[in-house]
Amino acid sequence: MGEVILTMKGIDKSFPGVHALDHVDLELRKGEVHALMGENGAGKSTLMKVLTGIYTKDSGTITYEGKEVEFHNTHEAQEAGIVIVHQELNMVGDLTVAQNIFIGREFKKGIMIDDRKMIAESKKLFDDLHIDIDPRAKMSDLTVGKQQMCEIAKAISHKAKIIIFDEPSAALTEKEIEDLFRIIRDLRSQNLGIIYISHRMDEIKVITDRVTVMRDGGYVGTLITNDCTKEDIINMMVGRVIYEEPKTHSMVPEGAPVVLKVEHLNAGKMVQDVSFELHKGEILGFSGLMGAGRTETARALFGADPKQSGDIYINGEKVTINTPEDAVKHGIGYLSEDRKRFGIVVQKTIAENSTMATLEKYMSGLFINKGAEKKVAEQYVQELATKTPSVDELVVNLSGGNQQKVVIAKWLVRNCDILIFDEPTRGIDVGAKNEIYKLMNRLAAEGKSIIMISSEMTEILRMSDRVLVMCEGKKTGEIAIEEATQEAIMDKATRDIK
Amino acid sequence: MEKIKQNPIVKKLGFNRIILFCILILMYLAFSLAIPGFAGMARIMSILNYVYFLGFLALGVTFVIATGGIDFSIGPVMFCCALMSGYTLNTYGAPVAVSLLLSIVIGFCFGMFNGYLVAYIGVPPFIVSMATMNIAKGLGSVFTKTQSVSWPQANDPTGKGWFRSLVKVEGVPTGLIIFAVAVVILYIVMNNTKAGRYILCLGSNKEAVRLSGVNVRKWQMLAYVICGLMAGIAAIFFVSAYTTVQPGLGDTYNNEAIASCVMGGTSMAGGLASIGGTVIGVFVISLLQEGIMALRMTKEVQMIITGLIVIVFVYADVSARRRKN
Q1: CATH code assigned at A169
Q2: How many A-B residue pairs are in contact by the CB < 8 A criterion?
Q3: Structural domain that includes position B117
Q4: pLDDT tens string A171-187
Q5: Quick check: B194 and A360 CB within 8 A?
Q6: Residues 6 or more apart in contact with residue B154 via CB below 8 angstroms
Q7: What pTM does this model have?
């Protein structure tokens, strides 16, 4: 590790109703890979957004290369040599790799764009990184992993001195992660400062030199990675002991009837010939890497997206599901991974959202029975312990965990027998997470059947009675919970990826 | 200020609507002081003539804007209804009641057409309503062979002028009563029925409503149908007040109706709508029109003012949303 390149001291940032960053410190040295860790909502991304000028800090200082700085937008930060490789890739799918790398600063020959030079320069970048990508390929034709390599190449082409990786491995295969680590080590030896945000404990141990832990917007501490254990870091992250014991055996009674049978479901590239069965009272975990086609399968099953072929049987009877309306009529509820876009109407109240799927039951003649609606909403606010002053509160004013509870309430009001939970705990703090787990277990015990799509291995192992694994649009395996291990699942989840 | 906004009565009525109502009163006082003889019942009755048809147009388009859509065809559709039904009355000798009904049916058909294209085919509302605007203008002209149509006067010897009592009977503003009933009905539709609930929700987040198993297309289309129906009714009140309709016109009323909505607190982004606000907005626009005429300024000046009003209120709405986020 070399000299200090970046010091953030006492960074404070509030949003209306949320103290997002509470006097956070961070120090980065040249030639260091520095992990930034914390649960979802701990404030890691906010801190990085303050650093790169997306947010303005309320107080605190940022010292970069010995001078106090304040960037007003990402462009200024980039010019100074601080670049983020985002979790969501910021690439234009229809342009080529080279065009994407040099977007906004294209080489010119007169007034024409000099494509040939851009291709040559991209080739050079890739050669330096020992990556094999054709600069002329269309971005949308590359795998997620390759696209990320392009992001890294783009960052380096900015003459970056600090590169921030925001959960880079989330969507990558093992082989791709190895490549990524090789590149990161390369960059470290070239004396760059690297900030590495990840949830994966194993990676932190492998790749990073120091680790700074944040919790609930506050700074907890900085450790030297080699001197601490996984448990040390976890304890700092959660501030209490967590119980993430995997399930040891299926809770589904022997001979429970099949409530949902899906046969040869096909919907575009992402859902190819998927078949499975779901039993009464079962939690069926859908595991796989990002882009494996799990959400697409759920959406096709629910009628949200069109499907090419496939038969669906509910309680042994063949049903036609072409729209979400059909699915809901047959007792299926879908909780989307993207609550704000697909789950709730944020500008409406909790009461209005709660009865969204069941309004016909809360009508007296032509008119909505607002009293009854309020009553049922209040009942579920109590049952799910949703934190809100009243059911007349707009959903936009609730936290992520409580918004999720409103979505759950919507389907519980409907009394659906089959529930699809797509990433039910994404963006939710630890406490609310446990409540949602408890609720899912209770629902299963009451005889509801649940499909749970999750990218968190611990969640899959903790909740599922059976695990279905997908890879690149195909079902690659089904594992009973008794035999499910991280390794067994990963093996199937990467089966088709070379 | 914050305290006033949190007051339950103010919250119920809506802070912005109270402000707008105060503006309306101030405007009336200002015109009364500036123009001799402006105050008084005669002038108010004259303002009301303008309120009815514009009111129906604005109430209808409130539903469309609530879905996040827009309808630029309402003014020309209203004219098309008035022309075609008036022509049937004059040229084919249809009974007055049939002509009035025909007007409503034509408006309804235009609403179906717009709604189907937007909700089921997926054509952007802006494009659909622009096209419909031209269709309505053209249809009205073709049907009447580009002649203006005059509806019978109240004292018409054939007795065909009875429909004018819809607006006024010996000094009693019957139109105001009909309009008030319509406002109450539409308020209930917007706030207490399934249709209103889903229209507002889909205006805010259509995909979330669709994924709740709701047939969003049906409800989205319904908003346009209500709007068309209102344009048909507006036509009746237009001819009751103004007598002569000319083909190829009507666009200015789009802007006035839309301005009334946005002034009243209906958001152009969809999801938020206020029937009461629209009504106050209509009164403001009508008063403005009357005041400008009394000041001997032209219709064009009024167009400039309504244009500016739309921009100011949409800006206020957008910046209020930005502050919230």
Answers
A1: 3.40.50.300
A2: 71
A3: 39-324
A4: 677 778 888 898 899 88
A5: yes
A6: B161, B164, B165
A7: 0.78
